[in-house]
Amino acid sequence: MDKNTPTYRRMDKVILNAFIEVSQEIPFESITVQKITDAALISRYTFYMHFHDKYEVAERIQDDLYQEFIHLIQKEIPAIDATKSTAPDYQQTLEVAIFEFYRKHAAQTQSIINIHTETIDFSGRLKTFLAQNYKSRFPNHENLDLEAMLYANMSMTLAEYYINNANSSITNKSMISSYIYTFLYAIGIHDEQLIQKEYNRFLQIKYPK
User: From first to last of its 209 residues, what are the pLDDT tens digits of the chain?
Assistant: First the structure.
C-alpha cells in the first residue's frame, strides 16, 4: 500500500486522533488496539495496515510533536530576529514560545507526556534540547552544566504541571520565566541582572482567587 496517498495519510490521522481521545480517559498501560479501533470506528485489520501496535502510534505522536517543536525553535524563533536582543531576552522569548506550543498541542502532549519507555520519552528529549540550548545562550555562566540541567528540569516540571492540570493557575505568559529564574536565584545559580528582573516580575504576579 502506498503510504504517501491522501487516503492513507487521512487514516493515519484518524488512528492518531483515536489514540489521543482514548488516552484522555485511561492510562497508556490500559490502552489496547481494540480500544483504539473502537474509538476510530475501524477494524483491527485496518489498524495493522498502518501501525504495528499502540507503541508505534505513541512514537509517531512523539516524533511529530518533536519535529514541530524543532521547527518552532529553528524557524519561528529566529524570525523574531534574536540577533538584536540580549541572551536573557531571547531566553524569555523562547520560554513564552514553548508555553504557547504546549497550549496549542495540549491534547497530543497529554497523550504521551507520561509515557516513559525505551523509545518514548518526550520529556527527556525536550530536557536534553533545553539544556543544550541554554548552554549555548549562556556559555560564560559559572557551573553551566548544573545550571542548564536545573533549568531544563524546572522548565519541564512546570510544563508537565500545566499539561496535567487543566485548571492550572499558570496562565500568565511571564509566569514560567519568573518561577524558573526565582528558583535559580534561590539556590545561588544565576545571572544577577536577569534574576533580579524576573524576581521583581514574579512578585507582581496576581494569582486568581
Answer: 667 899 999 999 999 999 999 999 999 999 999 999 999 999 999 999 999 999 999 999 999 999 988 887 777 666 555 554 566 666 667 667 777 787 788 899 989 988 999 999 998 998 898 888 888 877 887 788 988 898 888 888 877 777 777 555 555 555 666 667 666 666 566 566 666 665 566 556 554 44
Q: Which of 38, 207, 103 is nearest to 95 (CA)?
A: 103
Helices (H), 41-119: 44-50, 54-71, 87-104, 106-112
Q: Strands (DSSP E) along the chain, which ranges?
A: none
Q: For residues 28 and 137, what is the distance between their CA atoms, to the nearest angstrom?
A: 36
Q: Quote the longest CA-to-CA distance of the chain.
A: 60
